[in-house]
Amino acid sequence: MTNACAPSAAASRRRPRRPADAAARYGGEEFALILPETGARGAFVIAETLRSKVRDLGLAHAGSEKGIVTVSIGVGTLDGGAAIEIADLVRRADEALYGAKAAGRDRVHGWRPHLSEPRSTGSTRKP
What we know:
It is a single chain. By secondary structure, the chain is α+β, with helices and mostly antiparallel strands. The chain has helices spanning 5-13, 40-56, 86-102, and strands at residues 22-25, 31-34, 73-75, 108-110. It has a two-stranded antiparallel ribbon with strand order 1-2.
């Protein structure tokens, strides 16, 4: 999800997409890219390409500290082994987006599990 819809949408239309990929407006200034069969690495490459293309447009934005329109992108992905509700995937992307904004905007962030959420440690030892 990003925080600048129109320039991001214009930049995303310029790149070829697979038939199953979709872009949709999500809220006032956000939109979502749905990229089925795309792993985390591919999603980050696409997000970074989109971010740089919007920046390269050089559209003036007096209200931005950077002076031009930029986008902040949060990436939420599914790994093949874990079941997840769509609402949780959206929440992850949203948390990553706000992390990108908090880190200074004009960047791509991925979702990271919080310490409070249950995680597998990979250990098979019992207490």
